[in-house]
Structures are given as C-alpha cells and as structure tokens.
Sequence to fold (240 residues):
Amino acid sequence: MAVAAGYSAFKIAPFDGAAPDMAPGQWRPLVEVGLARINAVRSAIGPDARLMVDCHWRFSESTASWVLDAVEPFDLYWFESPIPRESIALGALKRLRAQANALGIRLAGAETGIKLAGFEPMLNAGAYDVMMPDVKSAGGPAEMMRIAETFTAHDVTFSPHNPSGPICHAASMQICAAVENADLLEVQFDETPVFKTLVEPALPLVTGGAAPLPDGPGIGVNLSSKLIAGMDPAAAWQAN
Fold:
C-alpha cells in the first residue's frame, strides 16, 4: 500500500519481541523472524527504495553486533536505536557505528534528546551518523533549527523523529524545509484515518517520496474544531 501511495523510503520495526536481557536461545528465534520480515519488505519494495530498520532499543551491544552482520544482505539505509540507555552507552554506540559503516549502513538514533544539550554528548562522542530530534521534546521549532545547525558542524544527518499526529507532522515539515541538512522526515502511514481528517486544510499528499508544504499561516494547518467536537474520545484513543 505504501508503495502504491507514492512512498520511496520505508521504515519497519521487525524485532519488537526481543529484549536486551535475553539469552541467545531466546533472542535468536525472534531475530530470525525479524530477518524474514526484513527480507519480505525488501522483496516488496524493490532494490532501489531506501529501507530503514528501527530496533527500538531491543538489543545488548553483542546482540546488536550479531544482528548488524545478519542484515548486511538487505542493503539497509540505516540501523536505528539498537541498544538502550543510548545517552550513556557512548562507547558501545561508537563501536556499533564503526561496524555499521564498514557494512555500508548508517547508525541512527537519539530521538529522545531534550534541547541541544541532550544531543551534545552523543555528537561529541561520534555516536551516530543520523540523529533524530523530535519537535515535541527537543524544544520546539527554533530549538530544532539550532540543533540541525549543530549537527551540520559535526557532519551528522538531521532526520526528525515524527510518528505522531498531524500537528507535529506539519511543524516538522516546516522545519525540514527551513534547514539545509534535512534528510528524511518520518511519517506515519495508514495507522488511523483521524490523522488525515483532524486538521484543516488537509495535509498535502506524499507523491514520489515528497510532499508540498501546507501553505496556510503558521505551520499551515489548524485542528478541525468541528471534527473534535463530534469525536468519541474512546474511539479516538483506540484509533491511535
């Protein structure tokens, strides 16, 4: 469906059954299932589309290293958030980044940073190729632009974390258009119809992996007061 809708880059989370404290006999079967999922997606999207894998902090360093070797055949664009407590596991991240880069894969992460100060230890350590601030927690649009500028000075790619609602999405689109070093903007796809109807005017459609900016004042869209007034809160929560 996403291919038919015009997307050209895809991110999946195939390992969500795993946990960092699992023994090899526990995580290996789960990882094998995840690898099969990656293979199926790569086959579906073709060899030229960008494919990212989000690990959701599911691995220890040794397991993440094993998984990195295992994903090499799938030509990943990046390998994201492999280990927990990333803000203090800087040595492990540097080692995983070097391994990933040797395989032609970028290491991505750092979506929970708060303001520029939350990213600086990872920047100074050279922990990531791609860092993913979220406008909701990183300090708003002005701070996001400051963060993006600092990323440029460290030769780190700016790719905002954005699996959220349409307001965050519209704000993130404006930020990406305003900075020089934005790569990909994460977008939720087909998770709930409310995403498409909660704001007015409607968010522009993605075509060929890109979308025009909303052209209204501010971030370009507003919450639909009519829709909100008529919503069943329980149904809205369930949809998300």
